[in-house]
Design brief:
308 residues; mainly alpha; Fic-like fold; two-stranded antiparallel ribbon; 4 strands; 48% helix
Length: 308
């Protein structure tokens, strides 16, 4: 599988423009409500929300919900996630920085029961050590230092592989007390839209593959890459249905080269990447291999860009 990209410079902002237009017009049945409901439902559900997709849709469309035994936090976090997606849509074209990332966390967690806890820092980095899937994360005192190189690279990501690598690093730092997965997936949405890469939603049926991919990244990158490519294929179908331009060129390493072939595996593309401070590129014949961001080295995975 190859990742999907917006095909031309003129069309790169077609999706962002449509999202903003539909939101302003209050469109129902378009790509904007589809993104809002599906991403909010799935991103919250894989983190433990008990809301159904239909209940999530009702909250989005009517601000009401029916059902017994609903948790207040599930409803609050659904509403908050809608606002966070709007924040992302508005922010495309602006840099990803510390203030923006903290603001996404504030939007997500404000009004929840967590926000009443003295030790839970809403909109700020964690104060108490945490872990993810039995993996140690950055100590609270190290978070700002570990996030600094990510912010340096955050606005120069041009390929799906770079976006996924950034996402894994963010999740392994786990900068916030809670909500790291949702903030991280919102940032991937931002990065895909900014780079002209078709975004994707990690659905419940992909949850296990997604978490396995996060765990294995650096040794076997294909788990996460293939999972996100599968999710991206679904979003391409949405774009086709709503008649929004989306190309199907490029590779996991990216799209667009000096020769216009849509492959990042050309010598020209490798040379361009080699000049960037945030990646290391090896040139082998007509293929380039992105290893990792320099500040936090990870074992190279051996995947050659341009081979699927």
């Amino acid at each position: 599988m190859t990742p999907s990209v917006i095909p031309t410079d003129g069309d790169k902002q077609a999706l962002v423009a449509r999202l903003r237009q539909e939101r302003a017009a209050g469109v129902r049945g378009g790509i904007y409500p589809r993104l809002q409901v599906e991403m909010t439902y799935n991103s919250n559900h894989i983190e433990g929300s008990q809301l159904t997709q239909e209940q999530t849709r009702l909250i989005f469309e009517t601000s009401t919900v029916g059902g017994d035994g609903l948790r207040v936090d599930d409803i609050v976090e659904a509403r908050n996630h809608f606002r966070a997606i709007d924040r992302v849509i508005d922010a495309v074209g602006s840099p990803i920085n510390e203030a923006y990332v903290k603001d996404l966390h504030r939007i997500l967690k404000q009004g929840t029961t967590n926000s009443d806890l003295d030790w839970f820092a809403v909109g700020d980095y964690k104060q108490v050590p945490n872990e993810v899937t039995m993996r140690e994360t950055s100590a609270p005192g190290d978070v700002a230092k570990h996030m600094a190189p990510l912010f340096d690279a955050a606005n120069r990501l041009a390929t799906l592989e770079q976006i996924l690598d950034w996402h894994v690093r963010f999740e392994r730092i786990h900068p916030f007390q809670d909500g790291n997965g949702r903030v991280g997936r919102l940032l991937m949405l931002h990065q895909c839209l900014a780079a002209g890469i078709v975004p994707f939603i990690i659905t419940d049926d992909l949850k296990g593959f997604y978490y396995r991919g996060l765990e294995r990244w650096g040794d076997e990158n294909g788990f996460l890459t293939d999972t996100c490519l599968s999710a991206q294929d679904r979003f391409v179908a949405y774009l086709e249905y709503f008649q929004i331009p989306a190309g199907i060129s490029g590779t996991a390493g990216g799209a667009g080269s000096a020769g216009g072939s849509g492959r990042a595996g050309s010598v020209g593309a490798a040379g361009a990447l080699a000049e960037r401070a945030d990646v290391v590129v090896l040139v082998a014949g007509n293929a380039s291999q992105i290893l990792r961001f320099r500040p936090l080295p990870i074992k190279p995975h051996g995947k050659i860009i341009g081979k699927g």
